[in-house]
């Protein structure tokens, strides 16, 4: 039976507080048939769950089933809208499209869309205490009491803050989001969250309490210890709309009638941690009996800066039990979570009143097995809890997070046990959509490390590291990891929100900051300002990556001016229009071929800059074409050709050798399509020679590493790529696994061979950049790649490594599940694939020993499979053989059979070489 399922609005499941005026709706098709494709659909929207009356009834002949825009009457603030979908789809054997039943309904609810919808005022306290040691302002708390008159139909809270806030309503925490309102550039944008609290409100004695901390708004940011980046006054904005059954409504707003209440949080800072005095909790509880009232102060801040929540909020995503509680050689009590994680340590304790407990967080133990935190630099990462003495006390922090695996415990009573602690993992609540696993436990651990590196650093913005005095949204790290990130999790909304801030932070001349939000104010170091290649290119590469992975054309529309401004900025930098050969470049950052004591790799920085100039210009041209901006398309297509010519003239000598003879130079020249055709064989062979010279190891940094294995595989040297991937000595990915890593490291030798550490200046053990190898593994080992944006057409072409007997890759695409599973036993290959409905896939079977027999078997089992025509590209001449409609490739002795299929599940079993 044909069904419609998985309704989504703007990538989200039943969102409330939405801000977009034309929400886009998506759905998936479920059917037992094969080759199912949508022919038409009907979409209905109503303000009633019964769909009577309708406000929009849309019927069209189209195969579009993702991100279809609402085009009905204008949407109203605070209104909930229900929608449902019916489709007509045709499968294998159908002469006419089959009609589905109506889907189950989904809904979205609008936020406050207009400035005039706000009746609330920004409020703050009149006086704030300053913590002497850290020079931070203590969080404040404010309360409001109210009653309601009548039966409540619905109650919704809209709230935000300058700083971070938490709400409590009638003794219950409001919502499950943390670190609200999130980190944006508050000079331009402050997100608003919406909470449905209908089930919590009562007729009499309602109490709302808000607690506000400094957070990113005014707390410490960056290793330069900047404070008050956006302002020095933390404030709350709160508005609750109460709708009654009889049609009346009223609002409860933040204003000067709110009262300051006692707060037990003495200090809470993102880097330094939190100090909490549980003895003050009783004062807060008894506040209603106090005779002296401290009223809140109204402050001014533009309501025009308010925007609806754009991405998934940070939530509790995992809870981990520690694996051991040890005494180190120094005699310190240390807890081991068994996993480098980001979040908090929740604990319970029973101790006398006034007992001071300290929890100090670190990532690793040193050579002697002692607690180590020198790499954390100036971030205290410490929780101090002062016990109330009232029985068993349970605590978790509020406006801070830590990156850690080990916690040094100080002041805890002798009876403390491992069961008293829980690691609470926090990150942006992005749906997990990718699975990758193999027969090799070490490779599986590498995948685990990649995913946990993403978890730890995708906390509202894509940070470089989650523990030291930095935790900034480095643009270069984000762009090189974006494709890998988008396989593991649905990062569409996450990146869309961050890219908006990138555009706001972009300078008038088009320069892109090193970090977004830009707390460094355009400066990375004393001799580096503005921006640099590979980092600034996030403005172009990230939107294009999102489009490829999610078919979200709106992200290109949203970012187009930013993309264009970046490319135009580069054009103005070089001595020639088609070269970027000026300024100091980060280049292949942290490459192993650098001079001793230098962070800069040996690859010519201007070569890297010009290569990225070409890459971003090419993407911009393709984007312009997609958006029907043909004047721009012709302009940037021509510019791209000019850059390619200029690159070849500047960076190749007469013999066809790159002037910068490094692994990374060969990699970027090949990956970005900058090698003249006559030199391609020579350049790929030179890359292989350099790898062989380095004993089959890489020496690449941030720029070369993401593309190294992809380039090798794309040019017929998959075996060399696998040789590098499966190395387990230094430098390699599995070297980190051998050393017990549970996340990705910032340096190939964050822990050196002798057990010592890399420099404490910059040595994160949770730094996702080198996890970009995931993209190679998913495309080659699992064999999953995109041919048409959003996996409307996919490529399923695994290349089994010799040392693996099986692999499994699964991706929840916008259309449904795309899956490849293969296993080799005694040279017998069994490969099962699943292709989602309303899509097609190009399948390549590797290592086919008997192509004619297999073709006959496939034709009998799946007669509708389409083989490609006999015409083949000239450059593949001599590498292809053909039999009738069947074409099979031969590379490195491996036969491949390629064909195109519609949706369904397929199993192939055959002898392989």
Automatic annotation (TrEMBL):
UniProt protein name: alpha-L-rhamnosidase
Reaction equation(s) it catalyzes: Hydrolysis of terminal non-reducing alpha-L-rhamnose residues in alpha-L-rhamnosides
Residue ranges constituting the Alpha-L-rhamnosidase six-hairpin glycosidase domain according to the UniProt record: 432-781
Record key words, sorted: Hydrolase
Stretches assigned to the Alpha-L-rhamnosidase concanavalin-like domain: 327-427
Superkingdom per UniProt: Bacteria
Sequence ranges assigned to domain Alpha-L-rhamnosidase C-terminal in this UniProt record: 783-849
Species whose genome carries this gene: Paenibacillus polymyxa
Coiled coil: none
Gene3D superfamilies: 1.50.10.10, Galactose-binding domain-like (2.60.120.260), Immunoglobulins (2.60.40.10), Maltose phosphorylase, domain 3 (2.60.420.10)
The enzyme's E.C. designation: 3.2.1.40
Keyword Cell inner membrane: no
Domain Bacterial alpha-L-rhamnosidase N-terminal: 151-317
């Amino acid at each position: 039976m044909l069904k419609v399922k998985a309704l989504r609005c703007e990538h989200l499941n039943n969102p409330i507080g939405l801000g977009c005026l034309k929400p886009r709706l998506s759905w998936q098709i479920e059917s037992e048939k094969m080759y199912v494709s949508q022919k038409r659909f009907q979409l209905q929207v109503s303000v009633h769950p019964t769909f009577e009356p309708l406000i929009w009834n849309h019927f069209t002949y189209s195969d579009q089933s993702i991100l279809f825009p609402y085009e009905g009457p204008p949407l109203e603030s605070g209104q909930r809208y229900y929608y449902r979908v019916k489709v007509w789809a045709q499968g294998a054997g159908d002469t006419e499209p089959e009609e589905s039943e109506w889907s189950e309904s989904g809904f979205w609810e609008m936020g406050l869309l207009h400035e005039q919808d706000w009746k609330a005022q920004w409020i703050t306290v009149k006086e704030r205490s300053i913590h002497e040691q850290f020079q931070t302002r203590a969080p404040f708390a404010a309360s409001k009491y109210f009653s309601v008159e009548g039966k409540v139909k619905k109650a919704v809270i809209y709230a935000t803050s300058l700083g971070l806030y938490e709400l409590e309503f009638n003794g219950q925490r409001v919502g499950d989001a943390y670190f609200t309102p999130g980190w944006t550039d508050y000079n331009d944008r402050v997100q608003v969250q919406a909470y449905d609290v209908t089930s919590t409100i009562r007729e009499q004695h309602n109490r709302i309490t808000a607690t506000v901390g400094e957070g990113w708004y005014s707390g410490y940011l960056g290793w330069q210890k900047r404070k008050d980046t956006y302002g020095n006054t933390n404030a709350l904005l709160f508005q609750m709309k109460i709708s009654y059954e009889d049609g009346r409504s009223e609002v409860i707003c933040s204003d000067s009638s709110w009262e300051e209440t006692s707060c037990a949080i003495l200090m809470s800072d993102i880097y330094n941690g939190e100090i909490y005095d549980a003895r003050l909790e009783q004062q807060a509880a008894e506040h209603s009996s106090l005779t002296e009232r401290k009223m809140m102060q109204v402050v001014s801040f533009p309501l025009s800066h308010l925007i609806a929540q754009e991405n998934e909020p940070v939530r509790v995503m995992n809870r981990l039990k520690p694996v051991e509680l040890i005494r180190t050689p120094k005699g310190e009590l240390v807890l081991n979570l068994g996993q480098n994680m980001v979040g908090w340590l929740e604990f319970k304790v029973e101790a006398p009143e006034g007992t001071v407990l300290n929890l100090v967080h670190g990532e690793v133990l040193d050579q002697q097995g002692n607690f180590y935190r020198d790499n954390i630099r100036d971030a205290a990462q410490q929780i101090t809890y002062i016990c109330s003495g009232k029985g068993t006390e349970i605590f978790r922090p509020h406006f801070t997070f830590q990156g850690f695996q080990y916690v040094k415990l100080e002041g805890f009573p002798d009876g403390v046990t491992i069961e008293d602690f829980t690691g609470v993992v926090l990150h942006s609540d992005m749906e997990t959509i990718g699975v990758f696993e193999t027969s090799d436990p070490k490779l599986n651990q590498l995948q685990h490390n990649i995913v946990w590196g993403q978890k730890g650093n995708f906390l509202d913005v894509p940070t470089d590291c989650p523990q030291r005095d930095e935790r900034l949204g480095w643009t270069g790290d984000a762009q090189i990891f974006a494709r890998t990130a988008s396989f593991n999790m649905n990062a569409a909304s996450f990146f869309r929100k961050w890219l908006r801030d990138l555009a706001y932070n972009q300078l008038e001349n088009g320069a892109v900051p090193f970090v977004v939000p830009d707390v460094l104010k355009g400066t990375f170091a004393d001799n580096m300002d503005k921006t640099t290649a590979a980092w600034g290119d996030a403005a172009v590469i990230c939107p294009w990556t999102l489009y490829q992975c999610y078919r979200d054309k709106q992200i290109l529309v949203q970012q187009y001016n930013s993309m264009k401004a970046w490319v135009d900025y580069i054009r103005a930098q070089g001595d020639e229009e088609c070269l970027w050969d000026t300024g100091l470049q980060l280049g292949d950052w942290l490459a192993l071929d650098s001079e001793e004591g230098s962070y800069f790799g040996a690859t010519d920085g201007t070569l890297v800059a010009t290569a990225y100039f070409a890459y971003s210009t090419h993407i911009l041209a393709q984007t312009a074409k997609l958006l029907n901006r043909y004047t721009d398309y012709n302009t940037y297509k021509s510019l791209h050709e000019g850059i390619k010519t200029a690159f070849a003239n500047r960076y190749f000598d007469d013999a066809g050798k790159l002037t910068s003879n490094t692994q990374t130079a060969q990699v970027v020249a090949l990956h970005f399509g900058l090698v003249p055709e006559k030199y391609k064989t020579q350049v790929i062979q030179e890359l292989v020679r350099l790898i062989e010279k380095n004993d089959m190891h890489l020496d690449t940094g941030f720029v070369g590493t993401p593309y190294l294995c992809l380039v090798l595989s794309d040019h017929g040297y998959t075996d060399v790529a696998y040789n590098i991937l499966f190395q387990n000595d230094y430098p390699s990915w599995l070297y980190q696994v051998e050393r017990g890593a549970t996340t990705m490291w910032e340096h190939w030798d964050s822990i050196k061979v002798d057990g010592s550490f890399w420099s404490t200046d910059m040595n994160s053990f949770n730094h996702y950049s080198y996890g970009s190898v995931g993209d190679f593994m998913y495309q080659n080992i699992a064999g999953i790649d995109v041919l048409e944006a959003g996996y409307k057409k996919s490529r399923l072409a695994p290349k089994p490594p010799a040392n693996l007997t099986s692999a499994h890759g699964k991706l929840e695409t916008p259309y449904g599940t795309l899956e490849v599973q293969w296993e080799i036993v005694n040279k017998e290959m069994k490969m099962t694939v699943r292709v989602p409905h309303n899509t097609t896939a190009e399948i390549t079977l590797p290592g086919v020993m008997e192509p004619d027999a297999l073709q006959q078997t496939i034709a009998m089992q799946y007669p509708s499979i389409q083989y490609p025509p006999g015409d083949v590209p000239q450059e593949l001449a001599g590498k292809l053989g053909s039999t009738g409609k069947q074409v099979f490739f031969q590379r490195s002795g491996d036969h491949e059979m390629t064909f195109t299929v519609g949706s369904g599940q397929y199993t192939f079993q055959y002898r392989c070489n």
